[in-house]
């Protein structure tokens, strides 16, 4: 079996070598011409999987190492009888920790306590639910807005949209849908932004097209939106330079790029591919997540979070792209993603507090950190 995979999937060669012959490419270089003798295709979000890519190819299995699948034409795959697998929730922790890091940094910058915020989470699936857990660990109050889930889960409490507009922060975690009963393309448009609480914060770690960027720039200029944090962009891989400059935090679509999150995606596809091949043995993939944890000595929430994940380092790497032409910007954007440094999730960091603080200890534990005793 010939397997073609996105080179940004960690350990994909090592894992899938037992299932076939593995070749890797940058995701944007996976084209129909590359698939003429490929049986199994493994992608991430930058590869559009549809008839244009797969027509007249021998591909029989497609796996996407992502939580979202708006880049995949699942109806076409079903029509062609092509097996499909993806990795829902694989990067949920990573995205949630990105949101926490953003709120903590902005709190330090502007002098507010994240615990005093009301946060509206748009999209309460795998990622959105994890965001709610982590943000509530900060002490903030969260509401979930998700009309599609509200219809199928009537017993669960979801907010109405008017409640969303009263929030201090709105963070987006929905797929990009252009049609259907709940389209999300430009969900955050002129009208949405005009109804947001004055001076609020918008975070988009979903898909760029969920936000009308021109409208967001106007809302930022008017003060309706105090800050916006963008990890995803309408013009990827060449974002609008003006958006990069105006963002309080700008990052190159890496919110879900913790090493753990990416590895979860690869592992999920490995299991699905083994089942597709009819393997019934109970052999365990020998390439699991690396062992070891880092030790952080700190005295504040901000220093603990920053020690585990310095979101402003990602921002600093992104800023120079605003000064490049479109072609150079796109190349640099993809390079930032390809060469992204290993980032471990909070669970892999052990915290020793300089001063005993019961409240801080509880918060850090709820965020997933391991707290050391005074003599550890």
The N- to C-terminal Cα distance equals 50 Å
Order of helices and strands: EHEEHEHEHEHEHHEHEHEHEHEHHHEHE
Going by CATH, the homologous superfamily of the domain at 92-250 would be NAD(P)-binding Rossmann-like Domain
Q: What does the radius of gyration come to?
A: 21 Å
Our estimate of the beta-strand percent is 15-25%
How many alpha or pi helices? Answer: 15
Strand order of the largest sheet: 7-6-8-9-10-11
CATH topology of the domain at 92-250: Rossmann fold
CATH architecture type of the domain at 92-250: 3-Layer(aba) Sandwich
- Text of the CATH class of the domain at 92-250: Alpha Beta
Q: Which spans of ≥5 residues are poorly predicted at pLDDT below 50?
A: none
Number of strands: 14
* Largest pleated sheet: 6 strands, parallel
Structural class: alpha/beta
Mean pLDDT, all residues: 94
Helix content: 25-40%
- The rough form would be described as globular
Commentary on this structure:
- It is a single chain.
- The chain is an alpha/beta fold and 376 residues long.
- Among the domains are: 2-86 and 258-276, Rossmann fold, CATH 3.40.50.720; 92-250, NAD(P)-binding Rossmann-like Domain (Rossmann fold).
- It has 15 helices and 14 strands.
- It has helices at residues 12-16, 51-54, 74-80, 92-110, 126-137, 147-152, 161-165, 190-195, 213-222, 241-246, 259-276, 301-308, 311-318, 326-338, 358-367; strands spanning 2-6, 21-25, 40-43, 61-64, 83-86, 118-122, 141-145, 169-172, 200-204, 225-230, 249-250, 294-298, 349-353, 370-371.
- Strands 7-6-8-9-10-11 form a six-stranded parallel β-sheet, with helices on both faces. A five-stranded parallel β-sheet has the order 2-1-3-4-5, with helices on both faces.
- Strand 10, helix 10 (241-246) and strand 11 (249-250) form a beta-alpha-beta unit.
- The N and C termini lie far apart (50 Å).
- The mean pLDDT is 94.
